[in-house]
Design brief:
By secondary structure, the chain is an alpha+beta fold. About 45% of the residues lie in helices and about 20% in strands. The protein contains twelve helices and eleven strands. The strands form two sheets. Strands 1-3-4-11-6-9 form a six-stranded antiparallel β-sheet. Strands 2-5-10-7-8 form a five-stranded antiparallel β-sheet, with no helix packed on it. α6 crosses α8.
Length: about 325
């Protein structure tokens, strides 16, 4: 999901706009219902999984029954209405709606409407849901067509802000950070918005036994520099994600990902203690899976009683003294 190429289009030609949107989403029909002279389509997909789209006039869109993605789409400006299957909803500024595959879908946008959308691969979502449950899914994953809750919307807005900053700064995320970001996005929507498996995910689960927890810890230590996700770890030790989470809560009073972050902080410290001339704190943080440098620095200091920059400066000073 993270790292796809960028597409940027601004046009008054409706056919050109439809072609650009189709390349990212799916074939669809768009009709201008407002003033055709106001048509000014601005469409962009950035290198991260963000899509922005506005038409500049009222339009109606028949999106059909798309099949291979779920769109988490925020109304960034204006208003709209949407229908999936038999359910129709009104859509206001600041609200995010999930649009699932396999249902007839249509939209009506007002002239000021602008969207910011995250396109999620349905196959990856369903695989992660299956790993959370520890079994193959027996029906299609579909989200309830309603706005995100206020709590999820606040979290989603922060995520969008982060993705926008990454794009604006042209920050090259390493493989570890990219995998962590993908996993966070997918897990956030699966655990934060109601869907066809919400009740299944809420059912009690037996915690993984201590032996499995130790195996997971060993696997994480041996592969901490790789782009691991919690689903990868659970698959390796042969339990569901929820059982692994419950096992870490029961036997370690923490979470698997918190344990992995601690291991990665140890790896980052080792890199800073043995720097070369090109070593930079930002590069080390990204290499070990820390995209937010402020949080990386705070976590590092909480464990090692000094900032990453202090470690690097101290080791370089000692290296100079030994020359």
């Amino acid at each position: 999901m993270v790292g796809a190429g960028s597409i940027m289009v601004q046009t008054r030609d409706l056919d050109e706009a439809i072609e650009a949107v189709t390349r990212v989403y799916s074939p669809h029909e768009t009709a201008v219902t407002g003033r055709p002279t106001d048509l000014n389509v601005v469409f962009g997909r950035t290198a991260q999984p963000l899509v922005r789209l506005s038409y500049g006039t009222e339009v109606s869109i028949d999106a059909g029954e798309f099949s291979n993605f779920i769109a988490m789409t925020k109304c960034a400006r204006g208003s709209a209405s949407a229908r999936q299957g038999s359910r129709r909803v009104d859509w206001r500024n600041g609200q995010t709606m999930p649009f699932s595959p396999g249902l007839g879908t249509d939209f009506r946008f007002d002239r000021t409407f602008s969207q910011t959308s995250v396109r999620l691969d349905i196959g990856r979502l369903e695989r992660l849901c299956g790993r959370l449950l520890g079994r193959p899914l027996d029906r299609q994953l579909r989200f309830v067509l309603q706005p995100f809750s206020p709590e999820l919307q606040r979290l989603w807005d922060r995520l969008l802000t982060f993705l926008q900053c990454v794009n604006e700064d042209q920050l090259a995320l390493g493989a570890v950070v990219a995998a962590s970001l993908d996993d966070f996005i997918l897990t956030t929507v699966l655990q934060g918005h109601p869907h066809s498996f919400t009740d299944d995910l809420a059912a009690p689960v037996a915690p993984a036994v201590p032996r499995i927890v130790r195996c997971a810890e060993r696997y994480m230590a041996e592969n901490a520099a790789a782009p691991l996700t919690i689903a990868d770890i659970a698959l390796e030790v042969g339990v569901s994600v929820r059982a692994l989470q419950a096992g870490f809560r029961e036997w370690r009073q923490t979470t698997p990902m918190a344990a992995l972050r601690h291991i990665r902080l140890q790896g980052a410290r080792a890199a800073l203690l043995e720097p070369d001339e090109a070593t930079e704190v930002t590069d080390v943080a990204l290499r070990w899976g820390f995209a937010h440098l402020g949080r990386f620095s705070a976590s590092y200091k909480a464990i090692f009683d000094e900032t990453p920059g202090s470690t690097l400066r101290r080791r370089r000073s000692r290296a100079v003294e030994r020359r």
